[in-house]
Amino acid sequence: MRYFIEFTYNGTSFHGSQTQPNGNTVQSEMEAAFATLFREPVSLTFAGRTDAGVHADKMIAHFDLPTHYTSNITHQTLIHRLNGLLPDSIAVRSICRVIDIAHARFDATARTYRYRITTRKDPFLYITHARVAAGLDFEAMNKAACMLLGRQDFASFCRAHTDAKTTICDVREARWVQESDTEAYFAITADRFLRNMVRAIVGTLFEVGRGKMTEEQFGEVIAAHNRCHAGHSAPAEGLSLVEIIYPNNIYL
Questions:
Q1: Which of 23, 69, 185, 227 is the most buried (most CB within 10 A)?
Q2: Domain 110-243 of CATH type 3.30.70.660
Q3: Which CATH architecture has domain 2-106?
């Protein structure tokens, strides 16, 4: 029987979401909690990968369990027990049954990230916001961001030497939203994302907002298909995965 598990995490203390040889990760913590609870290894497949220091307001993973494990336990009890085993930086929100061939990564039709910034000194915001200097031109950044929309090659915003088979993505939303005089966020939705893509886009848009790059030059960066033409990646702490969309027919 296959299940989707929805959870959230603060990525500050993790070396990314997915298991790696050296360094604590979200996946290693999650699978350790499952192994303790069910007394045998349980493999989790995440909907996507987040880098070190990046957060998730919403992450989905799928896992398989034999029927006898869940016949006498409610989903709420399972959630409660897992949360009791997990560190404070990870919280399980829900668990639901899906069809046996559902895949958390490959069945996702869209993902949304937000990059949050603040211009004021606030030690409580620095966990989830990147601090930037005041004076960014949001109108100019939004004009440039419009050039990201559509299905195109985003190699200029992809970390070099990755195992990505293609750098083509379909971006459906890309916009800056000012929440107050001191706080704003960049929202971007696409069918898929490349390694480091959002942080590279935000870092390059910062160049536009600071008047160091024109809208036309931003378009040239996209067209270059070369990471060397884009700006520096924005800091990890401002980035969070906030939504993942699936077709309704995979849920039971």
A1: 185
A2: yes
A3: 2-Layer Sandwich (3.30)
